[in-house]
Specification:
This protein has 384 residues and is mostly beta strands. The chain is 8% helix and 48% strand. It has one helix and 33 strands. A hairpin with a 4-residue loop joins β1 and β2. The longest helix is centred in the first third of the chain and has 29 residues. The chain is globular and about 50 Å long.
Length: 384
């Protein structure tokens, strides 16, 4: 009899525990944080980085303490560029351009995703109005727009283990005033570096020496295949394939170029490049992690063009996906680490839009868009 009572009590306890665990599991599922999204707010005075928890259902919620201040300043004006934020490969540091104070800031990423300024981690960018950063291992290059001042260049730095940036002597590559660099980026193995000159419709190509210095490729700068070369991306699976959007061809005349990059950095056209976008102002480019699909963000007609990438690098336009809100000005875009979500910032409504990704198909999330902090003038995004 006593044994039966004990068994009954034990069974009741197990039932209660199971119910509690079930509730906890449901709560965890609802509130599951799978990563984070960071946006360069480019705020006037002290620049800030908006930080969001990224949940399993695709929703974004502001992280406690967000927005996080850098030790530099923003411009509070719309800046067209790709890559103004970068996260180091192991996710220890976030690098941001402070365009209003001509600086670069490094912030440490805490285990919970929060940001902390690195002591001595904010340094002069080596020019005027930095707009884009490239990072490979401990080597960093920044593109300085110059803002008509004439101080327009690519400048290199070493990223120390403690997050400090040290200028790389002899690394500055001067560009003509008014070139308007829109992007600077490394290929997958860090042996090539490319940059776009939006205003003069040219593409810079370099090989990267073991000491971090750049060697100009034969023929560089190359004439772009369309007006206003803007966003660019190396293939994540083939370090010798480079893709560049051509943004200023006029209504319905946007294109995306595909190039083969040789060992000496010279560029040759792939197939029938450039490939028609059939939209207006394709400015930003992102490529799926498996290298099979390219997404071009069309700013003037809010949509994302989707291309299939052939093994040799030729592009085939699949279709374009419009945003739910047709009054946007979408800009920089980044995929989540698992490739399942594409996040895009919007400078017109100061928001972040999200799309689920299935192969080359996109579908905007029900929770999209998510508002950014008051005063943000966003122009860069990273996802981890």
């Amino acid at each position: 009899m006593r044994l039966l009572k004990r068994l009954s009590v034990f069974t009741t306890l197990l039932t209660v525990m199971a119910a509690v665990v079930g509730v906890g599991a449901a709560d965890a599922s609802t509130d599951n944080v799978v990563g984070h999204v960071y946006v360069n707010d480019n705020t006037a005075g002290t620049n800030t980085i908006a930080a969001f928890d990224r949940h399993a259902d695709g929703t974004l919620t502001p992280m406690p303490g967000s927005p996080f201040a850098t030790d530099g300043a923003g411009t509070a004006m719309v800046i067209g560029s790709q890559g103004s934020l970068q996260v180091t490969r192991r996710g220890h540091y976030l690098l941001a351009v402070d365009a209003g104070s001509n600086q670069i800031s490094v912030l440490a990423i805490r285990p919970d995703g929060g940001l902390v300024s690195v002591p001595g981690g904010t340094v002069a960018s080596g020019g005027v109005e930095p707009v884009s950063i490239a990072v490979h291992g401990h080597l960093v290059y920044v593109a300085n727009d110059g803002n008509t001042s004439g101080d327009t260049n690519y400048t290199g730095f070493w990223l120390c283990h403690d997050g400090r940036l040290l200028p790389l002597a002899g690394s500055t590559f001067t560009l003509p005033p008014g070139s308007q660099p829109g992007d600077v980026l490394f290929n997958r193995d860090g042996t090539r570096l490319a940059g776009t000159r939006v205003a003069t419709s040219q593409i810079d190509s370099f090989t990267v020496s073991a000491n971090g210095l750049l060697r100009v490729a034969p023929g560089s700068p190359d004439a772009a295949q369309g007006v206003g070369p803007f966003g660019s991306e190396f293939s994540p699976i083939d370090p010798n394939q480079l893709f560049v959007s051509n943004a200023h061809g006029g209504a319905g005349n946007g294109t995306v170029s595909a190039f083969r990059v040789s060992d000496n950095g010279s560029l040759t056209s792939i197939g029938a490049s450039p490939f028609a976008d059939l939209q207006t102002a394709p400015c930003w480019v992102e490529i799926s992690h498996d290298g099979r699909y390219l997404f071009a963000v069309n700013t003037a007609v809010p949509s994302i063009s989707r291309y299939a990438i052939a093994p040799g690098g030729a592009l085939q336009l699949i279709a374009s996906t419009p945003f739910k809100t047709g009054t946007m000005a979408p800009e920089d875009a980044r995929l989540s680490p698992d490739g399942g979500t594409l996040w895009v910032i919007d400078t017109k409504s100061d928001a972040v839009s999200g799309f689920t990704v299935h192969n080359g198909d996109l579908a905007e999330l029900a929770s999209s868009p998510t508002s950014l902090p008051v005063g943000a003038t966003p122009f860069g995004i990273v996802v981890n």
